[in-house]
Write a structure and sequence with these properties.
alpha+beta, 10 strands
Length: about 475
């Protein structure tokens, strides 16, 4: 009797079929929402978490593409419903994923970016717990910065290797993508033989699954007006250039807020590149908003030991106004006559922090030094965080237990949090801080900042 399973012709034909049709393991995803550090999170954050956890990679209308640009491996998840590719994820992955970033133009929407840790000798450095901590710590400190929601995502290692890593390895094989290709090579070797992988804790769960984070960022890249000129090169140089931006210099001016902003803008414009980046009609509330953003960036980056911030600061253009003591933001102009269009800062690239061995450029280049302006609420929340860290409270317990950190990494976050709060408290007690970055009042004043309280002594009595 003819047995087709043993027929040489059948085996040859079988070997010619697409990989997804030849016993490829099914790619499933387990989504884990970590407990928040803040007492409450917004409905928008909760919905974003739910959206990530509803992703179904078994659906033929959900595609996953390897990231084939930049320097670190990852994946993009796309919704194909209501497109010509609906029900044809396999074909999309074969024909459209090789187009790289243009795949998002063909899909209905981007559902998630998956980022895992990667720290090989020849690769760029990424660390998934860092993105999780930026999300949760930013909500605890109630920052104005737009920091992406992040949840844990876990995949069966061999299934992810088959569907994502193998094509990523093939499509990144270019002299222009040397570091990225090295990352895909490291991923391939690690998932092919997990037992021998040296950074197993960072990449794999105890059960051998690949783990990382789902997130989605939005925004466009700032120019020199916020990212700095970067003319001094990578490392300490560009981090010092960042401190020559108008909002950063304004933080260090021991002047009333309006004067500090005017002086810093004039000083920044002495640099040709900065003069071109700062529009001639820049409004005072925009610079004040940036000052607050930068203070939040420096605090987060110092505590979380960020080594790759400069050049990775983005913005979203939104309408901003103050009503009944609250700041409101919207995509379109509201009826409120005092609303103004501002660039609101987004921190989308947060995966190069926390890990032992990373450089803390905010600390190395003394970014916390010399501040004279700060938001009072941010100051108070930072002091409360420090008290929790000192006493081993619930936030410290969560840092030690929820983020898959080594003991050294967790204690580093805690000790740096205490240090940042202490340094700012010392400046406050010395009368060096003006707590005048109250964005609610700044927006309500329509730029009439001379009406805001300017006395350091009065503000010190209220806050310290």
């Amino acid at each position: 009797m003819f047995n087709k399973s043993s027929s040489p012709v059948f085996l040859i034909l079988l070997s010619m079929l697409p990989l997804r049709l030849v016993a490829a393991p099914e790619l499933t995803v387990e989504c884990i929402v970590l407990p928040p550090l803040a007492a409450e999170i917004s409905p928008e954050d909760k919905q974003a978490e739910r959206n990530f956890c509803q992703i179904n990679l078994a659906s033929e209308s959900t595609a996953i593409c390897p990231k084939i640009w930049s320097t670190s491996p990852g994946a993009l998840v796309y919704d194909l419903v209501d497109t010509e590719w609906e029900g044809r994820a396999s074909a999309f992955e074969a024909q459209i994923c090789p187009k790289g970033k243009h795949a998002r133009d063909v899909a209905r929407s981007e559902l998630a970016v998956f980022k895992n840790s990667m720290n090989g000798r020849e690769t760029s450095g990424t660390f998934a717990p860092s993105s999780l901590l930026y999300y949760h710590l930013s909500r605890l400190l109630q920052t104005r910065l737009k920091v992406p929601v992040a949840v844990v995502a876990q995949f069966p290692a061999e299934a992810y290797r088959s569907r994502v890593v193998v094509p990523g390895l093939r499509l990144s094989e270019s002299s222009r993508l040397k570091m990225l290709h090295a990352g895909w090579q490291e991923m391939d070797a690690a998932l092919a033989d997990p037992g021998s992988y040296s950074n197993k804790r960072e990449l794999l769960t105890p059960d051998g699954d690949l783990w990382g984070v789902f997130l989605l960022g939005e925004g466009r890249r700032y120019g020199p007006e916020v990212n700095g000129t970067r003319e001094s090169g990578w490392g300490d140089g560009q981090n010092r250039d960042f401190q020559r931006t108008a909002p950063f210099m304004a933080l260090r001016k021991d002047l009333p807020l309006l004067e500090a902003i005017s002086s810093a803008v004039a000083e920044a414009r002495e640099d040709g590149a900065m003069a071109r980046a700062l529009s001639s009609d820049i409004v005072v509330p925009q610079v004040a908003w940036w000052m607050n953003d930068i203070s939040e960036i420096v605090i987060l980056d110092t505590i979380l030991k960020q080594q790759d911030r400069i050049g990775n600061i983005d913005y979203i253009s939104l309408w901003a106004w103050s009503h009944e003591g609250q700041v409101h933001l919207a995509d379109s102009r509201p009826a409120d006559a005092h609303a103004m269009k501002l660039r609101v800062t987004a921190l989308n690239d947060n995966d190069a922090g926390v890990r032992s061995g990373y450089a803390n450029y905010a600390s190395r280049t003394d970014m916390l030094d010399g501040w004279h302006h700060m938001n009072p609420g941010l100051y108070q929340r930072l002091q409360a965080l420090s008290e929790d860290f000192v006493s081993g409270g619930p936030v410290a317990t969560a840092v030690r237990g929820n983020y898959r950190l080594s003991s050294r990494e967790a204690e580093g976050v805690i000790s740096r949090g205490i240090e940042v709060a202490t340094r700012l408290r010392e400046r406050c007690e010395a009368g060096e801080l003006r707590f005048d970055l109250e964005l609610e009042r700044i927006l309500a004043s329509s730029g009439g900042l001379d009406a805001l309280p300017q006395s350091k002594e009065a503000q010190k009595a209220v806050v310290c």
